[in-house]
Amino acid sequence: MHAQPTVRRIVGFGLATLAVGILGAASFMPQATIEDELKPDTVRITITANAVTLSPDTVRAGDVTLMVTNSSPKSQDFDLDGPGPNGEPDAELDDIAPGETRTATIRLGAGTYGVEAEEDEGNNERRAILTVR
Known about the structure:
single chain; alpha+beta; Immunoglobulin-like; 2 domains; 5-stranded mixed beta sheet; 4-stranded mixed beta sheet; 9 strands; globular
């Protein structure tokens, strides 16, 4: 008959220890903040002599920071063309020198955007697609 209270104490102590451990671990877990939710997504865009690449190529609607790096040997112009019927540029960065990185933060709605890079003379146009959800 005396074995039951001992078992209850051991089980009770074990559960209490487990609960403290879980609560303690939870306090060390990173918590998303409102500021994190309001930070714009960043798209890293790299222009080379043969291509324009995006990472990531899909972002959420809202403020988006475009970080454009010219890794080609020639100066480049960059355009982000919107999903509207006219496809007018939502962002333009002209004369990006070789090795230079420029940024622009803009508000984008859901849709598919054309990303274009070309040399200053309008030659060697390269394209990619940015999807905004």
